[in-house]
Amino acid sequence: MPTNVMEWGFVLIFFILPGSIGAYVAYTKGRNPFLWLLLNGLFAPTVMITLFQRPLRPVQGHYRQCPKCSEFSKWRETSCRFCGTGLS
Ligand SMILES: [Zn+2]
């Protein structure tokens, strides 16, 4: 266990921070936040995988799925960025 402030800072930056970011991003992409919390927390570079992977399903407030080409677009976008179909 960490014994002083420096060690806690180290743990925070290299494990807790990437773990939390990974868990949140995974959640917004419809993936398992606990799995990615563990993975990103144990090995921080895997946060890059979490950030760049495609959403698994549409998530309210984060991603919409195009009804025509089934690609995902950001929630705030009004038309599909792949085929231009209007999203609602
Ligand atoms: Zn589309």
From TrEMBL:
This protein's UniProt keywords: Membrane, Transmembrane, Transmembrane helix
Transmembrane segments: 7-27, 33-52
UniProt organism field: Geomonas propionica
Protein name: Zinc ribbon domain-containing protein
